[in-house]
Each structure stands twice: as structure tokens, then as C-alpha cells.
Amino acid sequence: MVKVVRNVVCPFCGTLCDDLEILVEDNHIVGTRHACRIGNAKFMHFEGAVRYTEPLMRENKKDDFKKVDIILNEKYELRKRIENIDKELVNRILEDYLKIIYSERIFFIKSMNLNC
Q: Where are the domains of the chain?
């Protein structure tokens, strides 16, 4: 038996069409009503034969896609190496950086004759 789910928001564009009707049978979407061609394709998964179930990522366009957990492991190793850096030195660098940014903002406000 086909169940009709009403007032569904389309997942595609920023128009946020919210009057869609989705036809569901045995917990699977079998059709849509009031959806544009692209919105219908998003619900029906027409585009591509593969549906990815895990997030994929690539560092640049020439690399192959990797699973995110592999990338996270690589970044974790990098983070462990960074932790070996002197934390006091890093804190002093950050404090100096913030002082520079703050002084530039004060200079800008004074140059604009703003009283803040």
C-alpha cells in the first residue's frame, strides 16, 4: 500500500518548496508529486548508480577520494607532532599576534574619527 507523506520540504535548492508529496511503499520512496525535475531526482536517486554511505574527501583535484577516517588519522598524526612544540612559545606568538590585530583596529577607529 502506498502511503502519501505531505508538506515535505525539497532538499535541492534554496527556494524551499514545502508543498511536496512523497509516495512511500515498504519504507522506500516510489514517487513524488509537485516536485521539479531536479527535486524528483534527488528523492528518487536517479543521478548515478552508486550511493555513497560514508563521507569522502580529497586534498586536491588530482588525488583520488579517500574515506574521511583515513584523512582524520593522518591529521591526528600531524596533530601529535605539533603537540611536541613548546606550548609556551606558541602562547607568546598568539598573544603578540592578538596585540597587533587589536592595535590595528584601534588605529583604524582613530583614523575614521569614530568615538567608540
A: 3-44, 56-111
